[in-house]
Amino acid sequence: MKLRIKFSKQGPVKFVGHLDVMRYFQKAMRRAGVDIKYSEGFSPHQIMSFAAPLGVGLTSNGEYMDIEVHSMEDCKTMMDQLNEVMAEGIRITECHMLNERAKNAMSLVAAADYTLTFREGKQPKDLDAFLKGLLEFVKQEHILIIKKTKKGEREVDLKDFIYELSVQGETIFMKVSAGSADNLKPELVMEAYYQWLGQTCPEFAFQIQREEVYGNTGDEEHRILVPLGLIGESLE
Amino acid sequence: MRKLALSDEILLSIEKPARYIGGEVNMVKKDLSAADIRFAMCFPDVYEIGMSHLGMQILYDMFNRREDIYCERIFSPWTDLDQIMREQNIPLFALESQDPIKKFDFIGITLQYEMCYTNILQVLDLGQIPLHWADRTEEDPIIIGGGPCAYNPEPLAEFFDMFYIGEGETVYFELMDRYKENKKNGGSRREFLEMVSEIEGIYVPAFYDVTYKEDGTIESMKPNNPHAKEKITKQMVVTMDEAYYIEKPVVPFIKVTQDRVVLEVMRGCIRGCRFCQAGNVYRPLREHSLEYLKDYACKLLKSTGHEEISLSSLSSSDYSHLEGIVNFLIDEFKDKGVNISLPSLRIDAFSLDVMSKVQDIRKSSLTFAPEAGSQRLRDVINKGLTEEIILKGAGEAFQGGWNRVKLYFMLGLPTETVEDMEGIAELSEKVAEVYYEIPKDQRNGKVQVVASSSFFVPKPFTPFQWARMCTKEEFLERAYIVKDKFKKMLNQKSLKYNYHEADLTVLEGVLARGDRKISALIEEVYKNGAIYDSWSEHFKNDIWMKAFETCGLDADFYTVRERDLEEVFPWDFIDPGVSKEFLKREWQNAINEKVTPNCRERCSGCGAMDFKGGVCYEA
């Protein structure tokens, strides 16, 4: 039985890195008494996979992991059992049964929503002008950034990977490409903007929160972005 | 949501920020207004080391069971954060509340090894607490030392208000009650220290004066306060099943050194190895019952979700119900994805059968600890592991599919000869020979025998507390002798030999048997930048050597010097149960190469029977 679990990660646990979150959930499954399935072979391990690793320091309302279980009561009970043993800041918000042929979450990832907020003391002097300028910046035909690599510098065009960008109050919202093929980090968009302004992006300027992760149920030409929690649920 | 002591910028700039945020599963959260006493438990090393220490978890859980005590955790900041905290004048904080540690009533620091002593000063210094008890005011926390190195507290005497000698489960609550009583009465810090001086097991250095002879040894150590006791008696849990036990251990977010449930099956040891301080000071052997351990194992695995459980004790092979607990763990947990990790057990039919069950296809290393390369020397140290036992055990294991063996030795033991040193290589060779005597089709590839030498450090409350310790040059010379002998072995391609850092060993020797003069040395090296001495990448021997000169102290006085049987030692005011007369007899037996039977075979009159429990009273 395949399950897709959505969880949030808020507060100090943002400093727990992805690998440690995986280990955390392995122990949480045991604490909660989840009848989780193990892989076969010499080193059995819990069948569990995460959709999109979250960087250290980021918070999230939209994390996903898939697990396989031998048995369970129902999704509500599963959520309650897990939430009973969660650490502060990690909360299970959804649990969906998947059909047996559902693709694993990681392979489905196509986009992600982020909100960016300036940390204290990091705001530009004229925030209003800065945010207006950002909206103008993303309207350009090309959004270029000089990326430093081991082999020197390389120019990258981010335009096609920025699906949406808007400003709500003092918060920047972005919907950007995600997944193994074309993963765009929101920090990179902001870095490109600062470069365009002829400035250096201050270190740790933004508290970044992931809001959602999407799969694409359309195709390359016509994206239909659907939250991962709503994909693969139907029992055909 | 909890507020952190460190800013996002700092946490994002340093290694492993999750060391410093608390908030783990089973972390205790309390309302500060309901807590009369704030106790900070400190392991003066990095989080991953400290969170692997069972004793700290026991006391943390025990204190927090009392509603009026809030016990929180402190660890040494790693070098990257240490630097930032100094530059930005950020006070050291406890993990739970993220409050500065100087706000606490008590800071209890566990002393697990000598080379963490400079980290103790780091903790106090970053905590903005005066290093010396003499400089602390009514507002400062009371600094308590405990743990195995507290059996010679004198090198740290200047820095601690008190030491707790023995096992923490016994008189800490009485101490806490006295504190509340004193506070309610409006009593001073000194009055509190006088009150607790009368509690068994509590040592307040301020209340004792030490005088020295012309030759630098101790003339006398006498109380200077009427409340202070002549002798400090070790405190001990007599009946293990009645001790406090942890129900919900804290589960670290990051991977720590011991990322598993640790099941303490017993305390103490019956073997009587003469080099072993723990084996002497934790006497007598006291066991948990099988029923207790079964119940406990289930609870701990359930409350933590750990995927591994291991047994813990000084000599788990001697646990009376070893088969019972191991078979229970296998039957109960093997099919639930829990690994059973076994300590180095005596190799016999039972342990091989067990290992084949828990290890399945993967055969990890077998471990033996002969400690000495020849039978003569093994008799000197009273290590009852014979060549015959080792070779027979290895042979049975090889037949069972194992092909890796680790052998642990010590170099520099009293009476050691070249023959003993070379015996290390010869014994390793014999182990390999046993493997290659097996028909080729029954072997599992090539054998690998890894021999490892640590260097011998004489410890207080062992028969070897009188022993001369080698110099660094002597240690290395002996290691080279062993290394050269390995190169002459027929199966040298199947053999490997490692040895420890000699500089560190010498310092450990100074600190282990040091007196109060050593306090100045520790402070000097700390002020010159030494922290994390137990980590080779941060150890700075030149700082220590310079400090010896600055303080006018001679390392050889503490290490190389042979000691007279009548000398007064810095730790003689402590009564750990084993008597000095017993240790003298054992020292003589060592010189005479005479073996002393283990406690179950025959009582040797060590003195631990006075505690009226454990193996001394077994049927």
UniProtKB/TrEMBL annotation, chain A:
Q: Name one Pfam family in it.
A: DUF2344
Every DUF2344 domain range: 2-186
Q: Which InterPro entries match?
A: DUF2344
Q: Name the chain's protein.
A: TIGR03936 family radical SAM-associated protein
Biological source species: Lacrimispora sp. BS-2
TrEMBL record, chain B:
Spell out the molecular function terms from Gene Ontology. catalytic activity; iron-sulfur cluster binding
> Which residue intervals define the domain Elp3/MiaA/NifB-like radical SAM core in the entry?
259-481
What's one Pfam family the UniProt record gives for this protein? Answer: Radical_SAM_N2
Report the domain of life of the source organism: Bacteria
InterPro entries, A to Z: CHP03960_rSAM, Elp3/MiaA/NifB-like_rSAM, Radical_SAM_N2, rSAM, rSAM_horseshoe, rSAM_sf
PANTHER family cross-referenced by the UniProt entry: RADICAL SAM DOMAIN PROTEIN (PTHR42731:SF1), SLL1084 PROTEIN (PTHR42731)
Listed name of the protein: TIGR03960 family B12-binding radical SAM protein
